[in-house]
Amino acid sequence: MLRSTEGMRREGEEPVNLGKGGMTDKPIEITMVASEMFPFAKSGGLGDVIGALPLALGRMGHNVCVYLPAHRSILREYAPGSPVRIPGVFSDARYEIFSLEHGGVSVKLVAADDLFDRAGFYGDAHGAFSDNAERFARFARGALSHMERESACPSIIHCHDWQSALIPPLLKYRRADDERWSGVSTVFTIHNLAYQGRFHPDDFTHTCLPDEAMGVEGLEFYGDLNFMKGGILFSDVISTVSGRYAQEMLTEEQGEGLEGVVVLRKESLLGIMNGIDDAVWNPETDPHIPAPFSLARPEGKARCKVALQKELGLNAGAEGPLCVVVSRLAHQKGIDLILEAMDELMRLGVSLAVLGTGEEALEEGLAEAASSHPGRVAFVPAYDEALSHRMYAGGDVLLMPSRYEPSGLNQLYAMRYGTLPYVRRVGGLADSVSSSPTPGVDSDTGFHFDAFAPADFIAGMAGICRVFLEQGLWRMMMRNAMEKDSSWDGVAPRYVELYEQAMRPRPR
Predict the structure, then answer these.
(1) In this structure, are 269 and 361 located in the same domain?
(2) 413 and 364 in one domain?
(3) For labeling, which of 108, 158, 191, 466 is most exposed (least CB within 10 Å)?
(4) CB-neighbour burial class of residue 67 (10 A; exposed 0-12, middle 13-18, buried 19+)
């Protein structure tokens, strides 16, 4: 059970009880299983997390390996060489395992026939792939098969989101057949409870689990197969990506129908705020921005703003702040709230730059706004990593009016570049952005609003515009934001504590 412990904790974390002895000095053998990892494959924040957390754990002296699907884009761009061919241990399926290395971390790519030889990770322009249940069941089985065939059973298998959520239930039943797995503990991290891997019950055959696992106390969920539910119920310890979201998941409003399942495991649930790779996100050394800057030499940020305005065709003489949005264009992200407030935002004198792709209606709305407000609104319907860096560097304010936000990384990137986040007070946004009713407190790093309503959003924006005119106050808040430590090196020790909790002997 996870309970409170004395001592300092990072902002946005729930407590974990280490018991006597604290953290071990012995390296832990850690295997992570996920569907994305920057720089190899990324569609969102999960890729950034898996691209940085394993490296931070490695710098602590732990031995880390990551399993990914052998996505077509990885094989083509990184040419990992000849694979090792192995038979499965759960069925007669066969796999090819490719090997890469990233920052001292071993990366294994699982190829299952041609299931991952596709342009998209999870779907295409027509929607999610119809065989995703088979694809990610084979991925989980293939990763475990390779560990077993290579006698490479780690101390910890850390699974991330529904795409690897079958590993805890598979491992539970595998322990009965192979004692090598008896000393392996599982951690399951929920990055977003809304994406559950919910499929037709006939897809259960792809899991190779016994029939009893498809019961109410297993993977069955209102008649469907639910991968996420299996990860929650069968893992030794569960984590999520902020302390506030750990509490929100227990509620009907934010539990996405699984709140009752999460409540069953709430004593084993820990919230740890995500970090960022401060080598990649560093305005002093960033190769993607036109001028470097730092706390000591901040003048480069003004040059970045001018360059961004020129690049996107925005007027340089606007009195209000340059607001930027870097986001998936999805219902969750609250982009519709920005569209509803557009006319008022223009009256406040702000400029707006939006980078992202997603729902057709939102793309159309943003394109129309850019057409209606030339020189004031710019919309780039693309995924562009380099441009995202330039927007964080050149913006004054980052808008994140999310309906819910488990953790959020964009607000952390923005603060690193002195761009102040304006966020809704939910999930990781509430945990990571500090604000006070009267801006000027020494710890303020951004701005909050509460109600998901245009009036509240606009009122908050009006206040931001007033603060923006007080340049001394604005510079102080920029300094606070840039000084905030959100590095993975600060976060990784919390995961080591979590792993130690998971490795405690299980009840027999």
Answers:
(1) no
(2) yes
(3) 466
(4) buried
Amino acid 442: pLDDT: 76
Q: Do 201 and 321 reside in the same domain of the chain?
A: no
Q: Which residues pair with 49 in a beta bridge?
A: none
- Other C-beta atoms closer than 10 Å to the C-beta of 450 total 12
Residue 19 has pLDDT above 70, yes or no: no
Q: Say whether both 262 and 396 belong to one domain.
A: no
282 found inside a domain? no
Helices (H), 80-131: none
508 belongs to a structural domain: no
Structural domain including 421 reads 299-486
pLDDT at residue 179, rounded to an integer: 86
Which amino acid is residue 374, in one-letter code?
Answer: P
153: Cα separation from own chain's centroid: 26
Tell me the whole-structure pTM to 2 decimals: 0.89
Beta strands 198-199; 224-226: pairing state: antiparallel
Look at 85-89, 306-310, 439-443 and tell me which has the smallest mean pLDDT.
439-443
Mean pLDDT taken over the chain? 93
- State whether 257 and 310 are in the same domain: no
Continuous H helices in 314-374? 335-340, 342-347, 360-372
Tokens at residue 446, please?
A: 């951004």
Please report which confidence band the pLDDT of residue 176 belongs to, taking 50, 70 and 90 as the band edges: confident
**Long-range CB pairs of 79-87, under 8 A, 24+ apart, other chains included:** 80/109, 83/109, 83/111, 84/146, 86/145, 86/146, 86/149, 87/145, 87/149
